[in-house]
Amino acid sequence: MPEIRSLLIANRGEIARRIIRTAREMGIRTVAVYSDPDRNAPHVREADVSVPLKGASVAETYLNREELLNAAAWQGVDAIHPGYGFLSESPLFAREVMNAGRIWVGPPPETISKMGDKVAAKRVAVESGLPVLPSAVISGDNPMAWTEQVAEIGYPLLVKAAAGGGGRGMRLVLSPDELADAINSARREAASSFGDATVFAERYLPAPRHIEIQVFADTHGTVVHLGERECSIQRRHQKIIEEAPSTAVSPSLRARMGEAATAIAHAIGYVGAGTVEFLLDTTDLGDGGRSNEPSFYFLEMNTRLQVEHPVTEAICGLDLVRLQLQVAAGEPLGFSQQDVTFRGHAIEVRLYAEDPEQGWLPSTGRIHRWEPGPTPGLRYDSSVETGSVVTPHYDPMLAKIIAHADHRSEAARRLVRALRELKVHGPSTNRDYLIEVLNADAFLAGDTHTDFVERHPPAIADDDPFAVERRWQRFNTIIGPHLAAAALVEQQQRTASGPWSFAPTGWRNVGGAPKELTTDVAWRLLDAAEGFAAQSVSYERRGERWDLSYCRVARDHPLARRRRADDPRTPINLYDVAIRGPAGTTQTLVELEDLGCGQWMLHFGRRGQPVTVDFHDGRIFVNSPLGQSVFTKIGTFDEHTRSTAVSGLTAPVPGKVVSVLVQPGESVEPGQTLVVLEAMKVEHQINTAAAGVVTDVLVSVGDSVDAHQVLVRLDNTAD
Predict the structure, then answer these.
(1) Of the ranges 153-162, 407-416, 523-532, which one carries the lowest mean pLDDT score?
(2) What pTM was estimated for this model as a whole?
(3) Residues 6+ apart with CB under 8 A from 41
(4) Per-residue burial over 296-329, b = 16 or more CB atoms within 10 Å of its CB, e = otherwise
């Protein structure tokens, strides 16, 4: 029986760290690989040895089979673990690893070939007696032929990459007019992510549940399933919240789906960790009279470890990476299906560097602070730490946070608390949206289908009947106190740093008279005290403008006298604060106490809470037990920002140009796609907002562009 004493991880980020953690526990020497942007990444330092892969792109590094094999040979490793993504489902790489005399931590290459190709996998599923949705392979380059190839499927349909997973290379097509663009876009993304541009079309179910069964098999003929995970909450067909078990799966349905999953694993001689994914159609409750349970359809089989494997580990009490390594070394699983038990409920959220309210645009930059909170009972699988740089080269996932509890509601509450406590300063994240989902009545009731994000969008729509109430609640509980903290902490720091405390740097000096703010509710700030004039400052948060005015409360104010009763020398940081914004207007007394070490106690009206305030890159990050807010001060005078006065369409994020669809002199219509960028492994269409004529195309396919760089210039002058 072979022995694994040294292991190369052919991956990066949080999964590389995850594998290193278990390998260390098993006494296995670990070898990491890294690209140029990952030179100082956490997984590089945590491995025993790290080997550079020259270059920045995925193709040059983590998809470069020759370089990975050379690194393995140089370090003399016994085995290679591919993690997930990249080459984890490459039968060619698996075969090359085995031909080099090393252990491949995964299923046999022949099995990967059968199931890694989703089209071939569907054929195997049919042969194994599993139900499937109608589908058709897309072949050739003739759009007319494509229309004929999908005719029997009907619309809506999904165009999907035959290789890989993770929502890459997947496009929803609602009508024949959208088919050609969807196929071309899916092919580009599939080729970039998996090195294989093959795509196929499949019937689209509008709102099923996405249920997957974790299977495990050894080389001794044992195949078991470890229950299901529900992964229905997705954006862009990519999962953001996963849980185990599913609220929609009964014990009898679990047994049926488990039998189907293990049957297909048996049929192909599977070895190792794998996931059989199904769509559960809860609108169809009559599948042959079988206990009136919903129908399920085979979707695909992922021949690797899944991103969401921690929720299965939590409820089963197993280490799936340890099992992978043991099975790869020829050891038996050591347990049967009857030995598998489940305890409690686990939920995982994926924290992404992206802005949900801006169309899920990815966000890049340095993470100035990464600091999980103190709540116990949580697992953080992260790819970053304080000082890490999020680049446009890779997936935007920063971390997975997992909560396990006896009951689903407790796991959800614990995750909400973890997200609110987490201090992540730098790129924008989807943290606020994750909190909204976990608190949503529909989620807590278990009403989670694949259209959940569409039914619960991240931005508050103006036509939402509860828009005013939701905005006011958000302002009153989080934004208002955090705004006051941002302004007053900066005031305290300015007072301590110099004699001109009455003249805030970069703010308008309003002189000695109190500032009057005109609103639908008339009010005037209290008289300025102790030589401190009333001040006004404006902030922006996610495109919303907030105006804040404040002045120090007079020393003879009753509250001020009470604060000074015990010690007349105690400085009184008591302010009269008024805030006006899109959610409304409020005025209240705010007191700020310095607790030391960057910690402050903020009393906003009748409520007190600890806060920390940090300043980075012109932004103010405020953290409290209520969550995190990020503000940007609006300058006193107009700034000469990047201008679109020349009618130029700009790149929203750094990325690579993968398609240019117009040329100079061409007329374009509103909403027309002019350029397609790839950033963080996702394509982004750059569309024009108005009709016009293209005057200049400033980029070519293959160019790397920066955020806000002008791509195309238009003449929008009306005829």
Answers:
(1) 523-532
(2) 0.86
(3) 12, 13, 34, 383, 388
(4) bbbbbbbbbbbbbbbbbbbbbebbbbebbbbbbb
Dist. CA 483–CA 632, nearest whole Å: 11
The DSSP string of 666-703 is: -EE-TT-EEEEEEETTEEEEEE-SS-EEEEEE---TT-
Determine the Cα angle at 590 with ends 589 and 593, to 5°.
Answer: 145
* Cβ count within 10 A of residue 206: 11
Token duo for residue 576: 């009269």
* 679/706 Cα distance (integer angstroms): 11
Neighbours of 652 (CB within 10 A): 17
Mean pLDDT of the chain: 87
Nearest CA to 494 out of 637, 633, 587, 638 is that of 633
Question: Does residue 156 have a cis peptide bond before it, meaning omega lies within 30 degrees of 0?
Answer: yes
Give 656's contacts (C-beta < 8 A, 6+ positions apart): 392, 677, 678, 679, 702, 703, 704, 705
Over residues 540-569, mean pLDDT: 73
Q: Which one is the CATH code of 134-203: 2.60.40.10, 3.30.1490.20, 3.30.110.70, 3.20.110.10?
A: 3.30.1490.20
Cα separation, 34 vs 457, in Å, equals 37
pLDDT at position 262 over 60? yes
Flag the least confident range among 56-60, 78-82, 422-426, 431-435: 56-60
Handedness of CA 328, 100, 47, 362 (dihedral sign): negative
The token pair that represents 111 in the structure block: 């099995």
Q: Which of 163-172, 242-251, 385-394 holds the top average pLDDT?
A: 242-251
Query: CATH says 648-715 is which class?
Result: mainly beta
Tell me how many degrees the CA angle 299-401-16 measures, rounded to the nearest 5: 75
**Where in the chain is CATH 3.30.1490.20?**
134-203
Confidence of residue 48 (pLDDT cuts 50, 70, 90): very high
Provide the token pair at 694: 């293209």
pLDDT for the residue 502: 47
Query: Reduced to 3 states, what is the DSSP secondary structure of residue 84?
Result: coil
- Average pLDDT on 444-453 reads 96
Name the residue among 218, 179, 228, 213 with its Cα closest to residue 199.
179
CB 378 within 8 A of CB 403: yes
**Cα–Cα distance between 135 and 159 in angstroms, integer?**
10
State the amino acid at position 673 in one-letter form: T
| pLDDT band, residue 413 (cuts 50/70/90) | very high
Annotation: CATH topology of 6-105 = Rossmann fold (3.40.50)
Question: What residues pair up with 657 in beta bridges, in sequence order?
Answer: 677
Closest by CA position to 150, among listed 162, 139, 136, 140: 136
* CATH 2.40.50.100 in the chain, residue ranges: 648-715
Tokens 């009403």, residue? 447
Residues of the chain with CATH 3.40.50.20: 6-105
- Listed in sequence order, the residues at least 6 apart from 85 whose beta carbon sits closer than 8 Å to its beta carbon are 11, 15, 164, 166, 193, 395
First to last CA, the chain: 79
Number of neighbours of residue 25 by Cβ within 10 angstroms: 11
Distance from C-alpha of 174 to C-alpha of 168, rounded to nearest angstrom: 19
The number of beta carbons lying within 10 Å of the beta carbon of residue 564 is 14
- Both tokens assigned to 608: 């007190």
Q: Which of 276-290, 617-631, 685-699 has the lowest mean pLDDT?
A: 276-290
pLDDT for residue 513 is more than 50: no
Q: Torsion angle, CA of 220/221/225/226, rounded to 10 degrees?
A: -10
Q: Which of 304-318, 488-502, 628-642 has the highest mean pLDDT?
A: 304-318
Higher pLDDT, 565 or 678: 678
By 3-state DSSP, what share of the chain in percent is helix, strand and coil, each rounded to 5? 25, 30, 40
